[in-house]
Amino acid sequence: MRVEETVAELARVAAREVGRGSERLAVAAAGGLLTAARSLAGRPAPDAAVLTGFFIPAAAPPAAETDGPIGAVQLAAAVRALGGQVRVVTDAPCAPVVAAAIAAGAPGVALDVAPLRGYDEWAAGVLPRYARLSHVIACERVGPGVDGRPRNMRGEDIGGHSAPLDRLFTAGPAFRIGIGDGGNELGMGRLPAELVERVVDRGAQIRCVVGCEALLVGGTSNWAAAALVGALAVLRPEVTALRELLRPEWSHKVLTAIVAAGAVDGVRRRAAPSVDGLDWPAYADPLARIADLVAAAT
């Protein structure tokens, strides 16, 4: 397959339907994966920030979910493999899980933690650095809806548990990449409002209004992040470390680490080595397919 065909197939695999309308949303985001990959791969030394962390306050106990941190750290490791600089960004409630993901999957990557209280002062201190970034990537990071409030898939306002990282996402001239699976994540504002309202349960209430330059839609956000790493590996086949990141064993290692740190399945609302209600065999199947597609193309 040509590069364009391979990347389009990666996008289709990542968008596998799990019950939230990802395949229909992905049609409207067609081309986003190739655009994002070319933007990163074409820069000699990208300087990026990866935002992640989706807190589940109703979980027992409350914690960040397993979808998001794995993909975010996978992307951070990929940027580093490309010779770039990268930092991962989350907020205080999600920090233990995201820190565990970094330790397991990309040791040494910097972590910036936004507080819930005193956010404005914190942001003022980091904005000069963020204004110089070449790329900002949001991987399963909740964003504000039409009423300005961030909401989960059940329509619940989780603003009291989430720092407004959308302000960093939109600050400065960086190329913005959004990765999501349900319509309520940063970047999903690129989709037509009517589509999200029609396809997603409670879509009119939860849809994020913040857009981006390139949008990736996955059945889980982690799958879409893996597809982006896969597209980078196809565009930059000489960077063999990218293919190592695509091994399902790499994701399993990070998943195990974050569950040990308290991460919860966002659908089941409890600590479990699963993602969005998918146990490992079902969750790992698209990861294996992405790795196989890349191996065949490189």
Summarize the structure.
The protein has 298 residues and is an alpha/beta fold. The chain has 13 helices and eight strands.
Q: Tell me the name of the CATH class.
A: Alpha Beta
How many structurally independent domains?
1
- Could you name the CATH homologous superfamily? TON_0340
CATH topology: inorganic pyrophosphatase (n-terminal core)
SSE class: alpha/beta
Percent range for helical residues?
Answer: 40-55%
User: Beta fraction of the residues?
Assistant: 5-15%
Number of strands: 8
Number of helices: 13
Mean pLDDT: 97
Shape, per Cα inertia axes: globular
- Order of strands in the sheet with the most strands? 5-4-1-6-7-8
Largest sheet: 6 strands, parallel
Order of helices and strands: HHHEEEHEHEHEHEHHEHHHH
The Rg value, from CA coordinates, equals 17 Å
**What is the level-2 CATH architecture name?**
Alpha-Beta Complex
Structural notes for this entry:
The chain is α/β, with parallel strands linked by helices and 298 residues long. It has one domain: inorganic pyrophosphatase (n-terminal core) (Alpha-Beta Complex). Helices cover 44% and strands 12% of the residues. It has 13 helices and eight strands. It has helices at residues 3-14, 22-28, 32-41, 69-81, 95-105, 119-130, 166-169, 193-199, 203-206, 221-235, 241-245, 248-260, 280-297, and strands at 47-52, 55-56, 63-64, 85-91, 110-114, 135-139, 175-180, 214-217. The strands form two sheets. A six-stranded parallel beta sheet has the order 5-4-1-6-7-8, with helices on both faces. Strand 4, helix 5 (95-105) and strand 5 (110-114) form a beta-alpha-beta unit. Helix 1 packs antiparallel against helix 13 and helix 4 (69-81) crosses helix 5. The protein is globular and about 45 Å long. The model has no long low-confidence stretch (mean pLDDT 97).
